[in-house]
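During the second year of the project, the team shifted from modelling isolated chains to modelling whole assemblies. The rationale, set out in the original proposal, was that interfaces cannot be judged from single-chain predictions alone. As a representative example for this report, we include one of the complexes processed in the last quarter. Its constituent sequences, exactly as entered into the pipeline, are reproduced here:
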Amino acid sequence: MDNKNFRFETEAIHSGYRSGEHQGSLVPPLYQSSTFTFASAEQGERRFAGQEEGFIYSRLGNPTVKILEDRMATLEQGEAALAFSSGMAAVSAVLTALTKTGDHILCSQGVYGCTFGILQLLKGKYNIEHDFSAMTSLEMLEKDLRPNTTCIYIETPINPTMKLVDLELVAHAAKQRGIPVVVDNTFCSPYLQTPITHGCDIVIHSATKYICGHGDVIAGIVVGPSDFIRRVSKTTQKDIGGIISPFDAWLLLRGLKTLPVRMDRHCENANKLVEFLRNHPKIEILYFPGNSDHIEDNEIMQKQMKKPGGLISFSIKGTKQTAQLFMNHLKLIKIAVSLGDAETLIQHPATMTHAVVPEEDRRKMGIEDTLLRLSVGLEAWEDIKEDLEQALEKI
Ligand SMILES: *Cc1c(COP(=O)(O)O)cnc(C)c1O
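Output from the structure prediction step:
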């Protein structure tokens, strides 16, 4: 196994783990231990001094967690990775590692609601500023980057309007300045998009979503260059402390094995539902990567995404009340935030995930009161379609 690179599907099952080092256990063991014993006082001294490899205390590293981190680094084609207790623990550890008072962060035109929240917090408490940019051309990026910009932070597809950001374009602009590009890759998972292969530097996941895939864990992942990962591990992870539990890491290792087959089904179901929704008279606008009126987006998708993904946003003709009425009539589809689970989930961004974003900013992001986001699950697509159909008939 060693040193040979296998295909994605194989690495998702095997990478980072050698059963021979664990009594032959086929499945990675769960090291549910807070601390690790040293053979001698001197060994403890060497471990703390960094002169000897080995585990010390689970906030500083844990063998089960390490397998997950190594596997995620392989899947994202990065050098190293760190696992966190949530996607937001990962986002905040990265942003606080890359900035200090007086710095500026340039963000894509939309970001996850709580990422918006941490940006506000950094601004209010530490005078770390941020701006949003459509990032559609090099000229625009050059205009929007400031002398004090220390990182670019993007989501693509942008939640929830599915607008795409050209990763190579952004990476190119950032290279000229020598600043890192951070990509929240939650919506794609490494199966559909690997930002590092397009020149970006750091990848973040809410592993709660597709990485886990079963709706039973909250977790985050950061992948990036070894020196950056080491720095975060020894500072904003270790000292702020948002570390993952070994059991959650173990569940994520289990979830990862089926990531490719799950993603294929999510994508296949989504494609079929897009066909149905696009032609429905009660649907006003439909957002789906590669299916947009923006020709550029379709080109970007071809360049950086394997498939469009499993998330569809659409607005219902009518008002906020019409959208809520539609949701209330759904029987199979569950009303819940989160995404990437086996169950199909629907949510109302304006009053749920993006309720913290001020109305004016929300409208700029294209989040109208009639917009809904569907996370297509793994059920038979006909059953999902029939549920949407019957609820649409009732409004
Ligand atoms: C859910 C989500 C997050 C936050 O992750 P948690 O695991 O809930 O902390 C960040 N970014 C995106 C795009 C998300 O969907």
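The first helix runs from residue 8 to 14. The chain has a mean pLDDT of 96.
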